[in-house]
Each structure stands twice: as C-alpha cells, then as structure tokens.
Amino acid sequence: MVYLNGNFIPKEKAYISVMDRGFLFGDGVYEVFPVYDKKIIGFEAHLSRLQDGLDAINIKNPHSNDDWKSLIKKIISFNIKNANQAIYLQISRGCDQNRKHTYDELDPTIYIQSSLIGPREKNSLFKGKSAITREDIRWLKSNTKATSLLANTLYAQEAKENNAEEAILLRDGIVTEASSSNVFIVKDNCIYTHPKGRNILPGITRDITISLAKKLDIKVNETTFSKEQLMEADEVWITSSTREILPITSVDNNIINSGLSGPIWSLIYDQYQLLKTA
Ligand code: PDD
Q1: pLDDT for residue 68 is more than 90
Q2: CA gap 244, 260 in Å, rounded
Q3: 2-116: which CATH number, 3.30.470.10, 1.10.10.60, 1.10.486.10, 3.40.50.450?
Q4: What separation in Å is there between the alpha carbon of 178 and the centre of ligand 1?
Q5: Where does the pLDDT of residue 81 fall: very low under 50, low under 70, confident under 90, or very high at 90 and above?
Q6: What is the mean pLDDT of residues 184-213?
Q7: What superfamily does domain 122-277 belong to in CATH?
Q8: Which segments of the chain belong to CATH 3.20.10.10?
Q9: Exactly one of 60, 145, 160, 276 is catalytic; which is it?
C-alpha cells in the first residue's frame, strides 16, 4: 500500500496527472526515512530537512509534523512484512492547467511508499565495496533534496556499469559527496568529511556518524579533502539512510590501504546498529 494525496491505495492503482510538475520538471523535494522494526532513525532530523527543502523551493508544507508522523506510521504498518523499510516521501508542486516554467500556488502532490532495506551484516562488509570517481557537475544547490536527480542517476548508472557501488564526485579536485551518499575518510585516526554548504546534501546519516564518532572520542574534521587524500586514506566510507555506513576499499580500481574495511569503521558500524534497537 502507498499513500497518494489523501488515500491509501495499492501501488498499482496510484496514478498522477501528466500535468504534475514533479513529472514535467522534477519540481519537488523528497525524503527517505530508514525504519528498523518500526523504529524510525533520525525522524525529527528528516522532517526538519524536508521543511528546509520545501522552503528552498517555495512550497508550503502541506502537513504538520504530527500529521506526517501518523501518515508515515500507517505506511509502516501496511508494509510490516518488510522488517526494515525505507519510507520514501515526495512532495511535488502539483498540477497546473498547462505546461509552463513559472508557477502559481498549486495543491502539492504528496506520495509516500515503503521499500525493503536489505540486510547489511557486518561479516558481509569486511571486504568493502568499490567506487569510481567522476567530476561533480551538479548545480550549486545540492543541499536541497530535490527530486530533479538527473546528474545523480547518470552517475549511479555509470557506477553500476563499472561494477561499482557508488560514484564519488569531485569538484576542482575536492571530494564533495557521492551520487546518493556522503563520503568520509580516515587518516591517522582522524575522520574527515566535506563541510555542509551548497555542494553537498546534509545527510542525516552523516550527522549521526559524526555524533557517534565524537561519542567514541574520535576526532572529526568537517573540512575538505582532495582526490589524492582519498586515494591515500586509511579508510573510506559512504553513508546514507539506506546504505548505513559502508566501507569503500577500492576507488577507480586502486586498492585503499589493505583493501579491507578498517577498525574505525568497525567501531562506528557497531554503534549505528545499537540505534536500531535503542
Ligand atoms: N540519498 N548525498 C546524496 C546526494 C544523497 O542522495 C543522499 C541520500 C545522501 C545521504 O543522506 P541521508 O544520510 O540523509 O540518507 C547524501 C537517498 C537515500 C536517496 O536518494 O535514496
């Protein structure tokens, strides 16, 4: 079951108009909430980023946080066969009479669905995953979680065609983030990740990872790092709501350090697992 504009209906019966600006222009924002056995990780933070996204593209939030909570909880319970769920929530600007670039105030289109988050057992991650690098040509509002994701989907497809998990993006030689995740490196027991700003999505898993590291007394630097620093790192990870904290052990076919996931990743991974049952 999915939620579309006030109704809970089977996904096969969920249709929108061709005049929807989400369809015509990618004019909307979205969120992905990770849910483990009904527990939503970072719920308030996701809702707050949703509000930031709506503000950034001038759409009025159609619901209060309490309304969102009850809609999301219903979708979780309708899809309880998925023990671990990624709740996808999209708000587009809505439908106009005709296709035009400018917009008036419209009734937004609201869509919520659940999909399965696959298990990420620790022992399946020791060897880590591979990544490719690409130049980051995206617009300078990458901090808005907009549904217009053409560049990101093309990067993700290139990664897939190169048998890689992710495409890590570089702007002027600096690692920004990846096609659908944030990027971390570890060097000499310090963690580095790109600072917040217009070049990266402020990932909720990124924030959680930073706070877990601080709790463990591991130093975190929200400073930029170069491709060279990436290649010479002791550890590389990507983070996202659906991937959690995933070790990357090869970049552009070069092995990172020993080619295995590292000890700091292992500590943070364990802490993250505790959030699922806290
Ligand atoms: N993507 N950067 C980009 C470009 C992303 O698309 C995402 C998440 C992240 C990580 O954000 P978070 O930790 O809040 O999930 C960083 C989601 C999962 C997606 O598009 O499906």
Answers
A1: yes
A2: 18
A3: 3.30.470.10
A4: 9
A5: confident
A6: 98
A7: D-amino Acid Aminotransferase, subunit A, domain 2 (3.20.10.10)
A8: 122-277
A9: 145
Does pLDDT of 28 surpass 90?
Answer: yes
For residue 34, give the ligand 1 atom closest to its CA: 15
Q: Is 196 a catalytic residue?
A: no
When pLDDT is cut at 50, 70 and 90, the band that residue 83 belongs to is confident
Ligand 1 — pocket residues by CB below 6 A?
32, 152, 177, 180-182, 201, 203-206, 239-242
Ligand 1 centroid, distance to 97 Cα (angstroms):
33
Type of residue found at 74: K
Between the CA of 155 and the centroid of ligand 1 the distance, in Å, is 14
Q: Which atom of ligand 1 is nearest to the CA of 206?
A: 13
Question: Measuring CA to CA, which residue among 24, 21, 110 is closest to residue 67?
Answer: 110
Return the best residue to mutate from 201, 209, 237 for the ligand 1 pocket (most ligand atoms within 8 A of CB). Answer: 201
- Please identify, by atom number, the ligand 1 atom nearest to the C-alpha of residue 179: 4
How much is the pTM?
0.98
Give ranges for CATH 3.30.470.10 in the chain.
2-116
